[in-house]
């Protein structure tokens, strides 16, 4: 009896069926190849760790911009738009899990588009994914510089804080596997939720928002607002960014021990995220009105601001770490896929991995320093890159897997899903174009009005 061949057959069977691999020596993955005890175990992420990672990719910078988005749209339209975005993004996230189970060789959104549209689609979405993740990392670094300024009362030049944040993220993002980063995600999520709850409670008991004029205060929140086209699109883009976890979900499900548990993880994630966004956004905007700040942690006075930012620091570090790690791993896989160095602790493996992380963090640092406007940067990332990764690919994935199956016997459900998938593609393209225009106009207007510090500035950005 050939024990070695039996183990290899078991490994292949487990990989194809999505079964749990109890020993790394039995894992033959369609993406990472042979995973042995001699290298990092890229298939060791449980369903709960998956949920936490997915939550942390969303509950971070996104939630800090939601109250200001409510201010632009009005409370009721804001909540409605948020729920609609939540529903569409949840379906998009669901399609990630379905497509991964149908096509085990897929690691990222670029692999999916490569299957659907060939090499050209792969390269376009791959480049878009990389830029999106780097911009997310840059947004996190910018948020960290704001937090460090707030906690220290502008104790150093802002450019120094940006550099310090980038260096720390560089070290954390160098951790190789998501199951280890999920440990950081637990702490980061707890810190972020605690900080925003403190702010929500504080704005409810304070006399008036920190930015409001002295004297008696009555909140000027609006049930319905009449924003300009650019302001409205910018606000919707902030919602998209808050839910733009779909590009992260492909790499996360690829490192799960059992990808069949993905739907459970997604349900837990989206439920917690949506309840948090609506609750925090509504409470903070209701009590602060037009004087809500972006990021929202600065809305409750200087003392609470310092406390909230101090508590949120681990969460902000983890947010930027996850984005930087995934961008680096995408590039790393493009270099190493199919090589013996991919899952082995060799000099080539480590040199390539660290070079990828370093290159990504340098670009993220340049972006964070060059576009020092938090709200506008969030809108730009959400509109230009978030929609491209979340809306159009999800519609295309459903059509790719189901068009041929249902075309001969066209059921009512099949026709509805065809229309829905096409609508996702059309709406995503519209939001991408219009939202990007609104974000760019917002950045230009802010710079003209001198509402923000310049690039590589020492001015306090908190």
TrEMBL record:
It comes from the Eukaryota. The keyword Transmembrane helix applies. Belongs to the amino acid/polyamine transporter 2 family. This is Amino acid transporter transmembrane domain-containing protein. Its main location: membrane. Pfam families: Aa_trans. One of its GO terms (molecular function) is L-amino acid transmembrane transporter activity. Keywords: Membrane, Transmembrane, Transmembrane helix. The keyword Chaperone does not apply. It comes from Penicillium salamii.
